[in-house]
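Researcher: Next sequence.
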Amino acid sequence: MASASHSPNEGETRRILIERHLKQSGWNRDQIVDEYPITDGQIMVAGGRPRRKAPLRADYVLEYRPGLPVAVIEAKRTSIDPGDGIEQVKRYAKKLQVPFAYVTNGLKIQEVDRDSGKIADVGAFPSPEQLWARYRRAKGLDEGPGAELVADLLLAPFDESLLNWDRTLKVPRYYQRLAVQHAVEAIGRGRNRVLLVLATGTGKTMVAYQLVKKLARAGWVEGRQPKVLYLADRNILVDQPKDDYFIPGFGEAVHKLGGGVAKLGRHIYFALYQSLEKGKETDGDDKALFEKFDPDYFDLVIVDECHRGSAKEDSNWRKILKYFDRAVQIGLTATPVRERDADTFEYFRDPVYEYSLKEGIEDGFLAPYRVRRVNINVDAFGWRPEPGQVDKYGALIPDRVYTQRDFERVIAIVERTEEAARYLTDLLHETGRMNKTIVFCVDSDHANRMRTALHNANADLSRQYGGDYVVRITSRDGQPGLVHLDEFKKVDSETPVIAVTAKLLSTGVDMPTVRNIVLFRPISSMAEFKQIIGRGTRLFGEGDKFSFDIIDFVYATRYFDDPEFDGPPIKRYQDTIDDQGRLVDREDETPSDGTSQVAEPGFEYREEEGGELPPPAADLDDEDLVSAVTTRARRLYVDGQEVFVYNDTLYVLDESSRPRVIEYRLFARDQVRRLYLSPGELRGRWARARSRSEILRELDSRGIDVNELAKQLHDQDADPLDLLLAVAWELPRMTRQERARRVRREHRAFLESFAEDAQGILELILDKYAEHGPDQLVPAVLQVYPFTDLGSAPELAARFGGKEGFREALDRLGRCVYDAA
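Model: Next structure:
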């Protein structure tokens, strides 16, 4: 026991006092989880290197059974009042959705009862049985229909036997556990349609696997394992969960249906809708494959990406769900839809659990993003042909102004694609040429020309990697495209680096190493936009991928400013999938202008055909234009035009990590002003090496990198101080060379106050400053060339009377450098 003269620290308080109290209340070691991980800590990447905020870790979580938290505890040292930890523990309890929270310093215990809304001092921790009884009352599990079944389902343990690729345990995160708990609670209460909405990249497959494991371990179906059907519309959405989760977890009980053959005797089946619709032609049986099962054969049907084909009320795929309507059906999606004939909520009802992109980024489980909005001149101002101008193939170009909505659908300006490729190539030279990148184009033809432009702009790497540095992956590319896709998504593959696509990669593909999402086609569906952005949100720490960039040529990122981006249901687009689960076509049925999309006779835009075009975005009554496009069954192609990037702007997430972007300069202005220094005070502190480094560290922690700021202000020659003063208070900038000249001109007396050999050192430091910046105005500068040729650091410092004298001379030099307003 600690003596009266010694105040135990938090670690001692926990070990000597708190854990003893818990043991006295009947909690055993297996029920007490210390340092319980909740979040990984938000990643900040607004500028400079990625940094994580502190993760959320609860000092203790009390579990009635493994994986079932019933209370959270915040520990304080004995000298701190427990009341100081109330808000902190309330935050933990809210995250974990547990009804009870405690703060204790080992001498006093305060209980936060979220069920009753009361905070009270208690003499001891409740026992496990007492807290479990209160938990059941708080959750409504002590009485009513299904109460006992729900309790049994909640008590069934989660599975922690699976391994990640690096052989570490694949442990479910807190929100995945909550999603499973909410789902089994709904099932236990008799609900047969259950919707789970989790942002792309947050692990819906893990949720599905853990849900099936929990139901099986709880004996949900008496006397046997539950029979499960896992449905999706693409092979990758079926094969990935099957191979990475269910086969390792369930072994030979897992089977994939296909070819019209229904192998019975398994209890977990995976299938494409397309496969279930087909019959086995060779045996003369005209029944669809799903009809070869009894309607009550399956106990559970999991519908992955349930916002797509099966969401439409009159779709063939909905027939499969209705056939198995006696089973409990679980819908999984990141983007539910609500429209007249396609309503995810009408079928599955309101979600029992939601986890948003915003939450995923704030918790540090998803990669934050930056947005580079790029305006090409013809997009910004439109393009109009000269009178009588013809395209590359001699077709007359109807005289009108063509805008961004027309490009690549009605008319293609060759240089526009080449300029976008040049810009992207320059950006990759700056940020990393081997950074995995997806470029979304209008259609296969546009993707082909973008591939060519990028291939030519990166001829050195195209030659080095045998032509696989840039590839096109569309439905037109068939099996070779799928081979490229398999290599592109591997975490250990070097190539392909740039995948140019139209719509094929917009959803359903797990690609954690992707660092750049390039939007070069208009997007008029919120659902598709969220799915595309989801290609970059996955983290891959082993490859130092903690963020991603969105390069937006078409202002598609306006959706980030939509209040519905991270909330209510969004609009719909319709996919066409072939029998092998490959995306063939996507038709956007909700134009951004709110008008109905009515095609002229003869128009049918299908990516895999690539011939027909939709009507132009404007002037639909222009008979010459319609005739020119329809008769030649292709768009107009124009070259020889002056095309250039008009401007580009970097945007970052706002401070609350809401899915809204703000211009980097505005972000930087706010962060500099929050140093709470006047321009004069900032200049004075900047002049001293030690306080300057403190300011840089503070700015770095706020996401401001002075090198990035220099790029955004297009001024690489200015001193970082001048950039900060300019962005925060719009003060004029000076170049480093000009500051160095002013020191030599206006502070000559200061330089000449030193002996000639010391003065020579200061003159060299000024030269280094003018060339490289203020990081040269530090004592360590003596350890680099050319000073190393003049003597050792102690020898050179001796010219100033020693180390402290040299440090003082540097600070005085700094004041001279920065005395100018």
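Model: The longest strand covers residues 57-65. Residues 567-579, 586-633 have pLDDT under 50 and may be disordered.
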